[in-house]
Design brief:
Layout (H helix, E strand, L loop, with lengths): L1 E8 L2 E7 L10 H19 L5 E5 L2 E7 L3 H20 L4 E6 L6
Parallel strand pairs: 1-5
Antiparallel strand pairs: 1-2, 2-4, 3-4
């Protein structure tokens, strides 16, 4: 099971993703999709020249940043929508908790 916790408090963002989907060992499309979306966020932050702290290990990603840039909020929101679509399609493999997002959309 992949567990994602995303929190936003004003300009502070935190994303934690842990675990493995265990959908199909050796061909885990759920893990691949979640990873691709996550690396899209990291690439976007790099392209926006946003400083962030992250730690990555197999099955564990933690990301922290502070930014008032509305593009960061938009990027995070799009990534979370992508996660939600995967969780909807594979509810036995992905669990999500979002706090501080979408209230002001």
């Amino acid at each position: 099971m992949i567990r994602v916790i995303a929190q936003r408090d004003g300009a502070d963002y935190e994303l934690t993703m842990t675990g493995h989907a265990n959908y199909k060992p050796g061909n885990d499309i759920v893990c691949a999709a979640m990873s691709a979306i996550t690396y899209t966020l990291l690439g976007t932050l790099d392209n926006l020249d946003v400083e962030y702290d992250s730690t990555e290990r197999p099955g564990d990603l933690r990301l922290f940043l502070t930014s008032d840039d509305p593009r960061v909020k938009f990027a995070f929101s799009m990534v979370l929508i992508g996660f939600a679509q995967i969780a909807k399609a594979y509810p036995a493999n992905v669990r999500l908790k979002f706090d501080g997002f979408f209230e002001d959309f």
